[in-house]
Specification:
The complex is a heterodimer of chains A (about 260) and B (about 375).
Chain A lengths: L2 H23 L5 H9 L1 H34 L5 H7 L2 H4 L2 H11 L3 H9 L7 H25 L3 H9 L4 H29 L3 H7 L9 H10 L3 H27 L5
Chain B lengths: L1 E10 L2 E10 L4 E5 L6 H9 L6 E6 L2 E2 L10 E4 L11 H11 L4 H15 L14 H13 L5 E5 L7 H18 L3 E5 L2 H7 L2 E6 L2 E7 H6 L4 H6 L5 E9 L5 E6 L2 E6 L12 E6 L5 E2 L14 E11 L3 E8 L6 E6 H7 L6 E5 L5 E5 L1
Parallel strand pairs in B: 3-8, 3-9, 6-7, 7-8
Antiparallel strand pairs in B: 1-2, 1-4, 4-5, 9-10, 11-12, 11-14, 12-13, 14-20, 15-19, 16-17, 16-19, 17-18
Helix pairs in contact in B: 2-4, 4-5
The chains are: A mainly alpha (about 260), B alpha+beta (about 375).
């Protein structure tokens, strides 16, 4: 077997591995119960909660991550390499550890003040958003930095020489040129936030109709041996995730110019 | 007038120290230097994209070094042109006017003239990724000149072009400048390009201005040995000043074991007896004498006998290497093909070469 065929076989093998995992769910799948579980108030709540929290977490990650990505891509500042390294922390750190760190932080005097005089995070909706944000912010910054790195800084230099302010040059030139990459980063991070479990369960708990996101609902259904509900929730979550991932590829392929 | 005064800039181990540069308004200025001489750093400092330790940049007597790039009125064309690919040619051209909130009505005639000279009217609704190399160059020039900048900076925009296209764009730059009389600073390491385009040329080597002046002065009368070497000049002979006439009208310099007296305006600066110098003779000024032909009196003192050591065919002309008898030096002589054919010389042939006093140039070491 030649090199290309071997590589292709590896790719197909990986596809089959995940496909078999999904298909195995269908062994216990009962079609008539699908709509019943889907329409159940707790399922709809989980879906709504997951989508809302993930969207807010993603918007927050972009709001902070985009300027951070710009700085890492374009500027030189002391400690840049350290900041860059820390962005990868959520990728190598277990989500449960991240959630535990957040939980411990809110038990410090400073964290307690935030809880008392600001926003309640522990076992509350903002806690879900914060846990998801903590998981995806580094990834969002890294992906957006990659998107910005692909755009030559000379475009901005020329735009500025022609009379645009730094902001103007970014919004009129760099942002539209990096738009596809930025959108891909947003979708990917949103999908990751939707599927986030470890940090969320640690910081926000598993309270039905309060902090029960879809991954937590799956965990709860499995813990109570409700296989039918578990499978249906997994399929819904996989459906949302795969749609988002397909959208990333669609965004990457859509011609930006002409 | 645009002035850069005592610019000091350090980047890693590279330093630009006390650089002075004066750009005449309405003139096509060229900053010429080898790769790594600091040309682009200077350009970025002028635009405002790079901060420098000290120095002043003045346009019309006003200091602009503390202004942000968008407030300097300096347009920039980088080597890769950086045309905005998501905008049409029209939007690219109008970008500066819109950003500077300049009225199109006031600038309509200027824009029409620009578009006309650049021959880009038929491209206005197209996007830059679909344009040819030459069309992109035209659009980049149009975009930079549309807001009528006080200074146009060109950072080696022709460096990556093939010879035919490079020639076309060089001609375009000349006619564009003749037509619009803008002030330009064109950065290049290409000697031919610098000579063709530059009304005034500044030679930058290792972060220092080595020479600045009219193109003929720089190419025919290099002020330093570094400039002469960078220009690739042949026939640079290490010699010594023997005598300086009282009143300083002429100097006597050693040359191949003899003496040669030259008018003092054939030397770069004031020289003193005993000073080491480099004597430069332009390759087209060496005269191969035909046997039997009468020789002018003025040439009789500087005739050397020797042999042709090598002949190189350079297409339109020949490089003849002449080795004077008893000396370990070579004189390169540049002969047009028709002269070479008439002389009927070949390698190893004994010849005599004469040199006029006026053809020498003395450079202090």
């Amino acid at each position: 077997m030649n090199f290309k065929k071997t590589a292709t076989a590896a790719a197909l093998g990986l596809f089959l591995f995940y496909a078999v995992l999904i298909l195995s769910l269908l062994t216990f799948f009962e079609g008539k119960g699908f709509w019943e579980v889907l329409r159940a108030p707790d399922t709809l709540f989980s879906i709504r909660l997951s989508l809302l929290a993930a969207t807010l977490a993603m918007l927050l990650a972009v709001a902070i991550g985009l300027p951070a990505a710009y700085a890492l891509s374009r500027a030189s500042f002391p400690g840049k390499k350290l900041v860059d390294t820390f962005l990868e922390l959520p990728m190598i750190m277990s989500p449960i550890a991240l959630g535990a760190a957040l939980l411990i932080f809110f038990n410090t005097p400073f964290g307690a003040i935030i809880q008392e005089k600001g926003i309640l995070f522990v076992f509350e909706f903002p806690g879900i958003v914060l846990a998801q944000f903590a998981t995806i912010a580094g990834l969002a910054t890294r992906l957006m930095k990659t998107a910005l790195d692909e755009i030559s800084p000379r475009y901005e230099a020329v735009a500025r020489s022609l009379g645009s302010s730094a902001w103007g040059a970014f919004w009129k030139i760099t942002f539209p040129l990096a738009f596809r990459g930025l959108i891909s980063a947003m979708i990917l991070c949103w999908a990751k936030a939707v599927g986030e479990f470890g940090a969320t369960v640690t910081l926000a708990g598993t309270m039905a109709f309060k902090t029960e996101t879809m991954p937590i609902a799956i965990f709860m259904a499995l813990a109570s041996a409700d296989i039918r509900k578990t499978i249906i929730l997994i399929l819904i979550l996989a459906g949302i995730g795969l749609t988002a991932l397909y959208a990333v590829r669609f965004a990457a392929k859509t011609p930006q110019i002409l | 007038m645009i002035e850069i005064r005592r610019l000091n800039l350090t980047l890693g181990s590279f330093r630009i120290e006390n650089l002075d540069l004066i750009l005449q308004e309405g003139v096509f200025n060229v900053l010429l230097g080898p790769t790594g001489s600091g040309k682009t750093l200077i350009l970025e400092s002028i635009i405002g994209l790079r901060s420098f330790q000290s120095g002043k940049i003045l346009i019309g007597g006003k200091e602009i070094q503390n202004l942000s790039p968008e407030r300097r009125g300096i347009s920039y064309v980088p080597q890769d042109l950086a045309l905005f690919p998501h905008l049409t040619v029209r939007e690219n051209i109008l970008y500066g006017l819109r950003a500077q909130k300049k009225s199109f009505g006031v600038n309509e005639n200027h824009l029409d003239r620009l578009i006309d000279v650049l021959k880009i009217k038929h491209l206005l609704d197209r996007y830059s990724p679909g344009l040819s190399g030459g069309e992109k160059q035209r659009v980049a020039l149009g975009r930079a000149l549309a807001p009528s900048p006080r200074l146009l900076l060109l950072d080696e925009p022709l460096a990556a072009l093939d010879p035919a296209l490079k020639g076309e764009i060089q001609q375009l730059l000349i006619s564009l400048h003749d037509s619009l009389k803008f002030t330009a600073l064109h950065v290049t390491h290409d000697l031919e390009e610098a000579y063709l385009l530059g009304d005034r040329i500044t030679v930058l080597i290792e972060g220092r201005t080595e020479q600045s002046g009219k193109r003929q002065d720089v190419f025919l009368r290099p002020q330093t040995v570094k400039v002469a070497q960078f220009l690739g000049l042949r026939n640079l002979f290490p010699e010594r000043v023997l005598q300086v006439e009282e009143g300083g009208k002429s100097i006597t310099v050693s040359f191949w074991g003899r003496e040669i007296t030259l008018p003092s305006d054939h030397a770069a600066g004031r020289l003193s007896p005993g000073e080491d110098v480099v004597l430069y003779l332009r390759p087209e000024e060496g005269m191969i004498l035909r046997e039997g032909k009468p020789i002018k009196e003025s040439l009789r003192q500087n005739i050397f006998a020797g042999e042709v050591s090598r002949i190189l065919d350079r297409g339109t002309h020949r490089w003849v290497s002449f080795q004077p008898r008893g000396l370990d030096v070579l004189l390169e002589i540049n002969l047009p093909n028709y002269v070479f054919r008439n002389l009927a010389i070949q390698e190893g042939k004994e010849i005599r070469v004469a040199m006029r006093r006026e053809s020498f140039w003395v450079i202090p070491v």
